[in-house]
Amino acid sequence: MATRRIRQMLGVAVKAAAGLFAVGVVAVISGFFLFLSAVPRSGAPLLTPADGIVVLTGGSQRVDGAVALLAGGHARRLLVSGVYARTTRAQLASQSPDAASLFNCCVDLDYRARNTIGNAIETRRWAREHDFRTLIVVTSNYHMPRALVEMRSILADYELKPYAVVTGPVDPDTWWRSPASARLLMAEYGKYLVALVRTRLESDPEYAPMSLMAGGRKPLFSGNWFAERPAGG
Length: 233
Known about the structure:
Blueprint: H1 2-38, E1 52-56, H2 60-71, E2 77-81, H3 89-94, H4 102-105, E3 107-110, H5 116-130, E4 134-140, H6 144-154, E5 159-165, H7 179-201, H8 209-215
Parallel strand pairs: 1-2, 1-4, 2-3, 4-5
Helix pairs in contact: 5-6, 6-7
């Protein structure tokens, strides 16, 4: 009798676990399609100007798009966040020869951010430094949902205007036709879910343990947030 009862209990537990697993799978798949629907298809038109523009590095098209917005008078200054240590101002300016003069007056380079969390932290420092309240956020379309989660978690009192740059063959409407697009979007979806959970569990990401672990090492706190080029770079 006891053995039969144990078997019945195990059977119920297995069925419950299978049901929970099935619900989890459905939730993850449904969430993926919701994520795809949030991926911008093109750069949104900007009807009103902003105080500043921040572009998250990860491709020359992102920087080109941000510089074009600055040249078009959509904001007063531009922050290029997450610049590679060996990249100079002159090298970035050479990619936009028609607007090269802007790099001498209106473009700041951030060499400290190592990931999207760092981008958000450095953007807040930059915005406070210049007393900006409205920011245009420029990044790739597939990266925009996660970028906004990170930015809004630390810039809750700021107005953020997303401007997506469509880069490469990543098409959220036909992703299943390209294994490369599918892998990129699925990986980005996983990071997006982690960002959603982390930003709801932690406090200020500049000091929160989960953000420090996600970044792999502590952000830099000493000195100015902005540097022309890192020492020895």
